[in-house]
């Protein structure tokens, strides 16, 4: 019960903050804000029951974000270079990599993040494998997925 | 404040460059999968730079926060849509483009 109330309070504060930011600090429409925040908290508690996401570690999150932003820049430059080359040097392939993260949120985060990172795009999550499309077969794809999976495991505090 | 102004303009130009490159890639790349690559990466970095540049010019802190909040929300949408389109293309049996052997 204590866990539930803590979760309820945290999410209420979070959604209220988002409303405040979206309304640019104006509280004129506060009755609407109360309804919207209450509805958001209700939906979020139903879709993601308390206890599952509360294990997220702050240090893990910082490490993950740092890694994500660094890799995003590399990916952006790589794609920009490929697009502007006279003859784009594409060597695409669809590869399958084994998944070591637990089902649910960690796997979804892995797939989503890979789609935003250099040269990789998730195509199919199936059993214990993620099939993905890569722009260049020659890149160290497996290592990259390993590194990202390690960051996500630290973020959720899970064993692999 | 000259430095902030300069940094802001630089970020806006960089953002514009990534959008341009992403659009060129969208037009030039050969199949649905490779085109999805250009879209999600350009969105990610181009939008990040644009929003950071605009946030530096914002009149108030809350407005800057609002601009920066757009970035993660767009990233979530971009990642989900990218996966959904790639997944559908794969289900329809569309093969990944390969360079022909000479």
Please characterize this protein's 3D structure:
The complex is a heterodimer of chains A (160) and B (102). Chain A is mainly α and 160 residues long. Chain A folds into 2 domains: 2-47, no CATH class; 58-156, no CATH class. In chain A, 59% of the residues lie in helices and 12% in strands. Chain A has helices at residues 2-22, 30-47, 58-84, 105-116, 141-156; strands at residues 93-98, 120-126, 129-134. In chain A, strands 1-3-2 form a 3-stranded antiparallel β-sheet, covered by helices on one side. In chain A, helix 1 packs across helix 2, helix 3 (58-84) packs antiparallel against helix 5 and helix 4 crosses helix 5. The longest helix of chain A is centred in the middle third of the chain and has 27 residues, at 58-84. With 102 residues, chain B is mainly alpha-helical. Chain B has one domain (2-91). Chain B has 3 helices and no strands. The model of chain B has no long low-confidence stretch (mean pLDDT 88). The A-B interface holds A 18, 20-22, 24-25, 72-73, 75-76, 78-80, 82-84, 88, 90-94, 111-113, 115-116, 118-119, 121-124, 131, 133, 135 and B 17-18, 21-22, 24-25, 28-31, 33-34, 36-38, 40-42, 44-46, 48, 60, 62-63, 65-66, 69, 75-76, 78-80, 82-83, 86-87, 89-90, 96-99.
In short:
With 160 residues, chain A is mainly α.
Largest sheet of chain A: 3 strands, antiparallel
Order of helices and strands of chain B: HHH
How many separate domains of chain B? 1
End-to-end span of chain A in angstroms?
29 Å
Oligomeric organization of the protein chains = heterodimer
Question: What are the low-pLDDT stretches of chain A, counting only 5+ consecutive residues below 50?
Answer: none
Rg of chain A over CA atoms, rounded to whole Å, is 20 Å
Q: What's the domain count of chain A? A: 2
